[in-house]
Amino acid sequence: MRILEVGCGSGAFTTFAAKASGIKGEVYALDIQPKMLMQLKKKLSRPENRDIKNIKLVEGDVHKLPFDDNSFDLVYTVTVLQELPDKNRALKEMKRVMKPGGILAVTEFLLDPDYPLKSTTIKLGEEAGFILDKVAGNLWNYTVRFKAQKSM
């Protein structure tokens, strides 16, 4: 799988995605802040992570992603969507870089000061043209999974 993590920060979830993506999988860890990418780079140099070779660090803005159309099988964010200044534009960019039928996963945690209700996340995704696929979790944390519509 080719995976894009939007707003990877210091990489709290990046290594798990890299391991889950398979031997031939690739994870692109995108963040707008160079300091966050440096923290992730430092994390990847630790002995327990040295065998992870399929993560590519990318400095960039989700509102103008530096990737070709139809590039990713999966795009995910963890407590990032509500921090974006133009959520709709960001979601449309994520959709642009997803393969037809690809998955967008949006995870939120109640402890995040920008925590939205599930219904808010679902509405944002559907307004951007995604199809709701699955909702998992509870009030404390949840993941909403969408599918990108296939081109006709």
TrEMBL record:
Q: What does the record give under GO molecular function?
A: demethylmenaquinone methyltransferase activity; S-adenosylmethionine-dependent methyltransferase activity
One Pfam family it belongs to: Methyltransf_11
Which organism's genome codes for this protein?
Answer: Methanosarcina vacuolata Z-761
* PANTHER family for the chain: METHYLTRANSFERASE
Top EC category = transferase
The EC number of this protein is 2.1.1.163
| InterPro entries assigned to the protein according to its UniProt record, in alphabetical order | Methyltransf_11, SAM-dependent_MTases_sf, UbiE/COQ5_MeTrFase
Return the SUPFAM superfamilies for the record: S-adenosyl-L-methionine-dependent methyltransferases
Where the record annotates domain Methyltransferase type, the positions are 4-105
According to UniProt, the name of this protein is 2-heptaprenyl-1,4-naphthoquinone methyltransferase
CDD domains found in the cross-reference section: AdoMet_MTases
GO BP: methylation
Q: Which keywords does the record carry?
A: Methyltransferase, Transferase
What Gene3D superfamilies does the entry give?
Vaccinia Virus protein VP39
